[in-house]
Structures are given as C-alpha cells and as structure tokens.
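Quarterly update, task 2.4: adenosine monophosphate-bound model.
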Amino acid sequence: MSLIVIGSVAYDGVETPHGKVDRMLGGAATYISLASSYFTKVGIVGVVGDDFAQEDHDLLTGHGVDTEGLERVPGKTFFWQGKYTPDMNDRETLVTDLNVFADFEPKLPASYLESKYLLLGNIQPRLQRMVRQQMKNVKLAGGDTMNFWISDFREELLATIRDWDFLLINDGEARMLSGETNLKKAAAKILAMGPHTVVIKRGEFGACLFRKDSYFIVPGYILENVFDPTGAGDCFAGGFIGYLAQQGFDIEGKIDRHELSRAVIYGSVMGSFCCERFGVERFRTLKRAEIDARFEEFRQFTSF
Ligand code: AMP
C-alpha cells in the first residue's frame, strides 16, 4: 500500500436545492479513498456497523481500495445529516449519530505499517496522533480537522499537527485556529505550529497553498451545476495526497514547489467532480482520462 487513509465511513442524509437523499454512502475516509484511488494504491482505516451494505463495500474495493483496515463491528454505521443553504456555501448539521464510530480505536493491519503516505481525515486529534506514531516510515503525512476540534480540543490538536508535513483546512477554520482574520497572517501562524505546508480551501473560490517562502493560488473550477458539495474538501485531500504519492514525492529530498502546485490542482479537480452528483455517485463513472482533461483545462484557464 502506498497511501493510508483514516477517517469516518458513514451513511449521510443530504438536502441541497437540487434534491434530498435520506441515506447514502458518505464519510470523509470514503471520499478521500475514492478520490486518491485514481492515483495510487490506497488502504482505508475506519469502522462500520453490521448495517454496512455489501454494494458500498464493493464500490471501495472496485476502486482498488484495500479494506483490511475497515473494521466491521456489531451496531450501526456512523450517520450524518446536513442541509445546505440556497447558495450552497454553507450547511447546517441536523444529525450526527456517532454509533459504532463513538468507540473507534484505529487498528492498523501489519500490511499498512510500512506505507509512505498518510492522510489523517477529520477525527479526534488523539486518534490521528496515535496513527501517525505507528507509521514509522512515512515520507509525507498530513490531514484535515474541523471547528469542533479547534474549539474544544485545541491543545490536543496542536500537539497532533506539530508532527504533520501539511494541514488542509478551510478558510473559516484557518481563522479560528490562528486567531487571525487575514489569510496570509493566518497561514504564517499555522506554519509556525509545525506543518511546513498549509493549504487553505476556500470552497467555490478555490484554494491557496502556503509555505514559509512561497505561495500558490488556484481559483475554483466553475461548474454549471453544483448538485451536492458534500465531500468536496475530502476529495480535494484525496487528489492532493494521491498525486504526491503517485509521483513518489519525497519531502525530505528536494522539495519540488511545482509538484506541490500540481497536487493542489489535482485536489481542485477531484473536489469539482465530487460536486457534480449527489454523494459518491460521480465516482461510479469517473475515469482517469476525465481527471487529466480537467487538469489541462485548469492549466489553460489560469495561463496568461
Ligand atoms: P466535507 O464535505 O468534505 O466536510 O465532508 C463531509 C463528510 O464528512 C460527510 O460524508 C460526513 O459523513 C462526514 N462527517 C460529518 N461530520 C463528521 C464528524 N463529526 N466526524 C467525522 N466525519 C464527519
């Protein structure tokens, strides 16, 4: 396995101005794994209940995702329900039923321990740290977090991201974590917390990658119809780390700024595909050639 992904595997209920689905496959680790599977060999670490459908398991394995680290225990799979605002830039969480996720203690199969790339999806920082410490030979590790951990588990989160190479975070959360309103200042403060690379995601407005001495900015891909933005941030993460893993990118060697920029573009590409259908639907038909074509489109519309 090249890349290990950890996080929630869920059933989601989602309402957007384009429709409503009461229950469908979701979860951060699901989206990250599916998106990164187009680039590299992925192993997933998570937990599901005995209600987890075989066809959902098959969608993961059909993308080549290794599920040895996906534990199945008695009980119900994590359930999340959200409703988007009419402009879809914001959402309200209506239900979070942790179910089997409440007692989740990540267990890494022996076959995952030597993997070189690690993406820690949005879960309790203590668990993210536990996994990071077990993976001794990782070349590149980083992940995601959310407002709840920033506000209520701040010290634990700071101790966790100290060991990360990169942090992927949305603009509101970057402001919250840093205490700075200005994104450049926010990024500088976050870089001082440990990660040498921070990517601030700005929803439909794109993303900015910051390092100590440089930055790279990409606009959002303009879709005619955004059906469901759920998972777009996770798919961004999947495209970003997936591309770096595919390239065998080694942060300890020469740091190639251009490869990091390309990873941000692949992240943006995967986030945009995710929004084109409800839930994970787009991944049932998406082909690598479509991904590379959209990458080239990004090159054209940002060139001047
Ligand atoms: P995103 O839209 O990228 O923020 O990711 C949405 C996914 O995160 C959904 O599929 C949810 O199942 C999952 N999710 C929502 N809340 C949580 C939470 N508290 N912990 C872990 N995963 C969550």
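Highlight for this quarter: The chain has a mean pLDDT of 95.
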